[in-house]
Amino acid sequence: MSPTALALTGYVTWMLILIAGIEVLRTRAVLKFGRQPNTFAPDGSDVSPFANRLCRAHANCYESFPIIGGLLLFALATDRVSVTDSLALWVLAARIAQSLVHLASGSATAAQIRFAFFLVQLVVAVIWLARLFALRVAG
After folding, report:
1. Which domain of life is it from (predicted)?
2. Which of 43, 57, 98, 124 is least crowded, fewest Cβ atoms below 10 Å from its Cβ?
3. What is the pTM of this model?
């Protein structure tokens, strides 16, 4: 499996892990505390501060997926993984790190650290786009 395919699979797996965490917290609230399953706020704010951060970390993943996932999918579909392979696992690592910092804290410092990891992903996406366009112009 190429690093690009591994990063794409890892990204989707990470989103599934986060959504499973949300479901575990909500199932616990239903079974242990008698909470009605149709009463949860989408952002998790009515469960706990951690649940709120977990929902936001998951939302950050799917909000970025059209960009990162789209570029990874494009590279795979057009046999241009040479463009994405070298940085694909760095993007995945930055995505997971961003989520883990989000889960750990909601402080201003944590938000700045999260932004740094998000910025890594955006910079890599711009690099990939520039390389893809350069291949298009050259080819």
Report:
1. Bacteria
2. 43
3. 0.92
